[in-house]
Design goal:
CATH class: Mainly Alpha
Largest sheet: 2 strands, antiparallel
Strand content: under 5%
Structural class: mainly alpha
CATH topology: Ribonucleotide Reductase, subunit A
Order of helices and strands: HHHHHHHHHHHHHHEE
Oligomer: single chain
Number of strands: 2
Length: 304
């Protein structure tokens, strides 16, 4: 049974940031790789209003429950982008309007045609609502995993507190999308087949095409290409598998491998998060210790 929009309304609202010390990032700045991920997340959160525009040209506009969800979802995502922008500003990096204007110029051709594309999908594919809600659930699950992983990598208490608040709202978004998708997929083989086909052939990590592809690939590969990131993705894959008719798609794992290949091809290497490198060094030190009077070969260090 889809989550009641009334419950969603009661729990939602603007993310609380008045007690977040954004100025602390000036004395304890984040690494350039973490900032690059935050810039990508900033752009995608702010892009939600344009996703909403695309949904409102589909037949979904007739459903007051659906439009209420879009309104609340869009509002909360806007403030996520705003908070992430304040982190960028504290590092003297472009944020808010300057970044958004540049992004919309970069993507102007797609943005011009996308309402027509979604109108055609919404009116030509009867099972489009099931596809859209499933797609939304996957994107919210992966976004939540990305914030979780970024907090662990950055190991900054101020950032962790802010991302934790964002994650709680993203978790509610994912739950609504998933409950709605489950209702639409359950017992409808046609909806399952159509959704599975589109996911296999069209799904990519959120933001792919909205921002330069290399930025989406970098964030995807950096966060999930090594260390404990794989455990978070296993959870996402398990949730996708649990949706009716969608077992075994392996979408996110495949996207991570493709992202790693793209980053290495275009930039020569993929940085290893400091936390991952430290764990690998500890493992190296342990395997290098004498065991039974002999010294083992050093552990192989992965290179990207």
């Amino acid at each position: 049974m889809a989550i009641s929009i009334k419950k969603f309304e009661e729990q939602g609202g603007r993310i609380k940031t008045d007690d977040i010390d954004f100025e602390s990032f000036r004395s304890a700045p984040l690494s350039k790789d973490v900032l690059r991920c935050i810039a990508y997340m900033h752009d995608i959160e702010y892009q939600t209003v344009l996703y909403t525009r695309e949904m409102l040209v589909t037949p979904g506009w007739k459903d007051p429950q659906f439009t209420a969800f879009l309104t609340l979802w869009n509002y909360e995502e806007y403030w996520h982008g705003n908070a992430l922008g304040r982190i960028l500003e504290a590092h003297d990096e472009p944020a808010h309007d300057p970044r958004l204007k540049a992004m919309r110029v970069f993507n102007k051709r797609y943005l011009f045609w996308s309402p027509a594309m979604f109108w055609a999908l919404g009116h030509g594919v009867r099972q489009f609502p099931a596809l859209h809600m499933t797609w939304g659930a996957i994107n919210e699950w992966t976004a939540n995993a990305a914030y979780n992983r970024l907090a662990a990598i950055a190991d900054n208490p101020v950032l962790s507190e802010l991302l934790g608040r964002i994650m709680r709202q993203e978790g509610r978004h994912a739950a609504y999308y998933a409950s709605y998708a489950r209702d639409l997929l359950d017992g409808d083989r046609k909806a399952q087949k159509v959704t599975s086909w589109f996911l296999r052939h069209q799904w990519a990590p959120v933001g792919n095409g909205d921002v330069p592809k290399i930025e989406t690939a970098f964030a995807t590969a950096y966060l999930f290409g090594s260390g404990n990131g794989s455990e978070l993705i296993d959870r996402v894959e398990d949730r996708i598998d649990a949706l009716p008719g969608l077992r075994g798609l392996n979408l996110v794992r495949s996207a991570i491998l493709e992202s790693r290949d793209l980053v290495v091809a275009q930039e020569g290497s993929l940085p290893v998060p400091v936390s991952v490198a430290a764990a690998e060094q500890r493992a190296h030190d342990l395997t290098a210790e004498p065991v039974g009077g002999a010294t083992e070969e050093p552990a192989h260090q992965p290179s990207y």
